[in-house]
Amino acid sequence: PKERRLCLPNTRFMIHQPAGGAGGQASDIAIQAKEILRTRERIARVVAKQTGKSFEAVSTDMERDYWMSAEDAIEYGIVSKIIACHAELGYKEVRTSGNFVAQMKALGLGAEEGWAITGVKSYLKPKGTDGPTLAVIGELDALPIPTHPDAWKETGAAHCCGHNAQLTGVVGAAMALADPEIREAIGGNICFMAAPAEEFVDIEFKNRLMKEGKLGYGGGKCELIRVGAFDDINIALGHHIFPGADFGIYNCSSNGFVNKTVTFHGRAAHAAAFPHEGVDALNAATAAMVNIAL
């Protein structure tokens, strides 16, 4: 269905008529030509049906290579939405989480919401199915880069780390594995997991949630572990886009870190008459950062 046809912002689309060659006797060439024309008509009718365009309009567009941007493809009716347009920061991914839930339910899968505030777990088979459970994980959040051309104006966030592509990969895996024949052939279970707050940014907001008792950790996966989201998971499979590589498989230890918030308090003074009575908080913070780096 059209509502499940999604794309990334830099995706390009092309429709065109069939192309090929034929050789042999004249009668064989005529047969091939007839088949190409029949295939051309069939493709045009399928595109027309799925986009709402008229058969005549699609046939005209297919005369030559017809290229479309992601926005053009939405207008044409090929896809329904660009999934990078509504980037949200960690623990605020309400819309993104909702879209993930909708995709899972469209496949006939249930969805457990509210894990670590905005996280979601969706199982291929009934929860508790015999055998190991593999979690296929994608991140929900984005980075606070309001000047990025693809930043969402409402949040100032942009998907500059590729989480939109990663979550799309999880949805794609669910679409493939939810096929009844494939699902029944798989041993154990699959948990499609949308994880919040992979990026350690927006610290003030996360600290406030922790002070309010709504959060234990600023990092989403740490919080998912704390609240028990991984208690029934035997294998966790994360993935990430890797420009320039066809694929890569990694199984290594992870690096942890401790986050501390330090507040520098200055003291006002007249800069010309009594500079010695003042304390420059900015200078103190800069000196601290430089010495930590060294």
Notes on the protein architecture:
- This protein has helices spanning 26-51, 55-61, 70-76, 94-106, 163-177, 180-185, 203-211, 220-226, 281-293, and strands at 6-7, 13-15, 66-68, 81-82, 112-115, 119-123, 133-139, 143-144, 157-158, 189-195, 235-238.
- It is of the alpha/beta class.
- The strands form four sheets. The protein has a five-stranded mixed β-sheet, with helices on both faces. Strands 1-4 form a two-stranded parallel ribbon.
- A hairpin with a 3-residue loop joins strand 5 and strand 6.
- Helix 1 (26-51) packs across helix 2.
- The mean pLDDT is 91.
List keywords for this structure.
alpha/beta, 14% strand, two-stranded parallel sheet, 294 residues, single chain
Number of strands: 11
Mean pLDDT: 91
Major β-sheet annotation: 5 strands, mixed
Order of helices and strands: EEHHEHEHEEEEEHHEHHEH
| Percentage of β-strand residues | 5-15%
Q: Helix content range of the residues, please?
A: 25-40%
Roughly how many Å is the radius of gyration?
26 Å
Stretches where pLDDT is under 50 for at least 5 consecutive residues are none
Q: In what order do the strands lie side by side in the largest sheet?
A: 5-6-10-7-11
Could you tell me how far the N terminus lies from the C terminus, measured between alpha carbons in angstroms? 56 Å
Concise overview:
The chain is of the alpha/beta class and 294 residues long.
Task: Draw up the topology in text.
Layout lengths: L5 E2 L5 E3 L10 H26 L3 H7 L4 E3 L1 H7 L4 E2 L11 H13 L5 E4 L3 E5 L9 E7 L3 E2 L12 E2 L4 H15 L2 H6 L3 E7 L7 H9 L8 H7 L8 E4 L42 H13 L1
Parallel strand pairs: 1-4, 7-10, 7-11
Antiparallel strand pairs: 2-3, 5-6, 6-10, 8-9
Helix pairs in contact: 1-2
